[in-house]
Every structure is written in C-alpha cells, then in structure tokens.
Amino acid sequence: RVGAAPGLVPGAAGSGLGHVYEAAGEEALGDDPALAAELFAAAAGAGRTTGSRRALATALAGDLDHASRLTDQVLTAGAPQQRAEAAYVAAAVLAHRGQTAQAVRLYEWAGTDVANGFAAVGLIAVGRLADAQRLIQPDDTAARPPTSLSAAATLMARGTAESVTGPPAAALSTLVQAATLIDPAGPAVLLPDSPAAAGALLAMHCTELDVADTLLTRAEHRGTGGALLATRHHLLRSWVLLLRGRLTDVEQRLPATTTAATAAQGRDDLLATALRVGLARRNGDLVGLRSAWPDACQALIGQPVELFNLLPLGELAVAAARLGDSHRVAGHLADADRLLADLGDPPVWTVLPHWYRLQAAILADDRDTARRHAAHLDAARPAGAWAAAFADAATVWLDVLDGTADPESVVAAARTLSLAGLAWDGARLAGQAAIRTSDRRAMALLLDSARNMQDRGTRPDPGQQLLSAREREVGALVLAGMTYKQIADRLYLSAKTVEHHMARIRQRLGCSDRHELLSRLRELIGEPEVSA
C-alpha cells in the first residue's frame, strides 16, 4: 500500500514529489478511490493543496463520516476554489444521509452549474418547486460551457420538475436522457443521486416497472456513482421485484440486500428496512414482520419526508396498520400530505401513496378513511391509464368491504392491476373478494383469477423472456469474445447455426449494429463468467 512507502510520510525527503502523488491520485480516482484518498493525503503532506480532492475520494470510497470531517476542515480554512468543491462533496454526503434541505444550502453556496442542477432536484424533493425553477437555467443563457455532468444535472432537475408539472411520460424521457449522459462517467463522479434512481422511482410510482428495471440495470452495469449508489441501485431493483409480486426473487436477493443495508446511509437504510417489511407482509409472515418492524421504525425516525422516499413510507404505513402501530407513521404521513400539497398534488407522486393509505385503512377497518383515499384516487383518474387502474381497483375494494362487489368487476379491476405489473395487489383484491362471498361459483371464479395473477407475479422479467436459454448461452459466449466457430465447437453446433442464433437475437432485441447488440446483451445477461 502507498501509505507504507517512506516517500508518502508528510515532511519526508520525497516531499518534492507532491505533484506526482496528486497526479497519481487523480489517475486512481475512478478505479480505486480509497487509494486515491491516500495519494491525495500524501500530496497534502508534501505541500500540495488537495484537501477537497481527498474528501471527494473518501466520499466515493463510501466513508461518509471521514469525508464529512475533511470537508469541514476545507470549508473552515481552505482556499476559495477548494471550498467550493468541498461544499459540493459535503452536500452529496448530506443527500446520501437523507438531509436534502441542508444539502441544498451547500449546493447553492457552491454555485456551479452542476451544483445548481442538483440543488434544484433537492428543492423539488422538499416541496420548493418555484425556487427550483429559478435555478434551472436555460441552455442559451448558460454562463459557462456545459459539460456532460452539468448537462446531466440540469436534465435531472428538469425531469424532476416535469414530474410534478406534467405527464409522467415527458418526465421519464428527460430523466432517461440524463441517465444516458451520465453513463460514461461511471464510478468516477460523486452524485447525490443518479438520474437512473430518480427515474426508476418515478417509473415505479406510475407502474412503468420495465422502464425502472432497465434504468437500474444499466446504472448497475456502468457503475454509475460508484460504491455509494451501487447500494441504492441494488435496493431499488429489489423494490421493482417487490412491486411485481416476485417475492421469491426478492428473497434470493436478501443476502446481498442485507449487505447493502449494512452499508446503507440514511435514506437507503429506510429503503432496505422497508423492503424487508414489505416482503414479510406480502408473504403473510407476521413473525418476520414484527422482527423487521423496529429497525424500520428506527430508520424512519431519522429521515425527513421528501419526494423520493414516499415509496418506503407508504409500505410502512400499511405494515403499521397491520401491526396496530399506526401512530409510528402518523407524523410522517402528515408531512407527506403537506409536501405533496406544496407541489400541487401532482398525480404521478400522489396516486401510489393514496393506494398505500387505502390498503392501510382496509387493514385497520377504517371505512371512512378508505373512502377518502378512494375519492383521491378517483379524482386522479384523468392522469392516465395507470391512475385509472388504481381508481377502478379502489372503487371495487369499497364494494368488497360493503359486500356488494360484482365478481366480474373484481376480476376486471384485479386483472388491470396485474397487467400494470402489480400482480400481488391484483391477486390480493381477487382473493379477499373470494373470502367475503358466499356464492360458490363467484368464489371459484375469484380464486382462480387470484391464482393466475400469483403465477404471473412469479414469472421471469420480460427481459429474461426475450431470449431462449440457448440464445442466452450463445450471447454469453459472444460477450466473452469468442468467434462463431469457437462457439460452435464449444456448443457442438455448426457455425451457421450460431450465426442464425445471433440474427434472431439481434431481431428480438431490435439492435441496429453490433455495438448496440453487445450493450443490450450485457444489460440482459451481465458480464460473462465463462470457464476455459
């Protein structure tokens, strides 16, 4: 390790090599930020001014506590340029801890185009849309030449603003563009959040689950945001599976999720603990739910409500009702209502929270509250087919509770939820209706519908279904760098057969050239692990 080398000891004879250590730190920043932090420390000991770069490397390595201490030192006594970078790092640290309002102040103080973009995202997240819009500067009036990072930050801010002022399709498009711009930076850039994570959360709120999974898969493959955001991307992909009702797949990811939860900071700790709560609730595991509940409550206490943590908050609201512990979440739910009201109650962010609140009211047998949330869902119906699906299901739920539900209407509403990706929610609606009817024929219809939807929830992701097992095998060998002849020899096929497989893969994935084909294969299959 570099720390053991005599030349890296502050004040040593090799102190004239400070610029060499600094250059080496810059070189290592993307691949090994922990090593970069040591090199920047050595450069500082040799007289170079590298405090803010050391803080940046330390944050990228995942040590937020140490990064925070380093930024405080630079902000107190550093040079102006160093202080601006330290403010950026300190703001990112606060954002990862879920302290968005405090992060915004530091981003605004830093004053760069990149910082302004992320400040605008944070302002919207805490309900200050008008302040955010003043920071989203039009391209033609930019004071400095735009970089890919500043352009991505601006697009992320615009996409977030569009999500509360217009249809979700436009916002998703803008956030996907931002994610594409940030992709080449990989793990070398410190981000408060990624466009992929913001886009995935938005997509989950409007049941565009395929879009969410594609964004997160690409971000994981590219290493966007380094170790800090790897945890977030992993957790959010697990949330996509949870919403789909693919509970077995979520369980299989739990060892990695447990590791992620251990490394989680603030907001991601809330994601991780709420994920466990949601899994236990959907599995009907009351013991597991009670076991996970204290950690979830502890994570919730330390997190102010913001736009991007409404999803775990909704899940905890339902669990609290199931456990008769709703007072634990009452304050946060009131804060969520105020936040959404400040933003004008944008449908794309309000529908799913009202759905969760409806489910909580049903579990608590609170008919008046259930009707109130059903009315909110009905009012949001014009926002799109996804909103109408929730509204229809809410109306049917009220009929189920009143004992007046028509079985065909229940099946139709449940199927619409299932087709939107929410197979577990659809199956629960049909199943509860079956339990509450005395008509044997209706019961059989509803139970059969519930079983079909449960089966739908356990099927592989659509991306997995695009390719057959043999096509995935061929694709993995292509990614490993084998020629068609080598693949043919490996799989005991003819080279012509391999060529036909690749032509079908290209057609199914809709790829126009080899580069795009290889990128899509990596997204679907991952990096190959091919033995000799």
Describe what you observe in this structure.
With 532 residues, the chain is an all-alpha fold. Among the domains are: 194-344, Serine Threonine Protein Phosphatase 5, Tetratricopeptide repeat; 347-460; 466-525, Arc Repressor Mutant, subunit A. It contains 30 helices and no strands. The chain has helices at residues 18-28, 33-45, 51-60, 64-77, 80-96, 100-110, 113-125, 129-135, 148-165, 168-182, 195-205, 209-222, 226-244, 247-252, 254-263, 267-282, 286-301, 310-323, 327-342, 347-363, 367-379, 385-402, 407-419, 423-435, 440-458, 462-465, 469-479, 484-491, 495-509, 514-525.
Question: Would you summarize the structure shown here?
Answer:
By secondary structure, the protein is an all-alpha fold.
Can you tell me the CATH topology of the domain at 194-344?
Serine Threonine Protein Phosphatase 5, Tetratricopeptide repeat
The total of helices stands at 30
Query: What is the helix content?
Result: over 70%
**End-to-end separation:** 32 Å
Which regions contain 5 or more consecutive residues with pLDDT less than 50? 1-14, 459-465
SSE string, helices as H and strands as E: HHHHHHHHHHHHHHHHHHHHHHHHHHHHHH
- Assign the CATH architecture of the domain at 194-344: Alpha Horseshoe
- Please give the number of β-strands: 0
What's the mean pLDDT score? Answer: 86
**Radius of gyration, CA atoms, in whole angstroms:** 25 Å
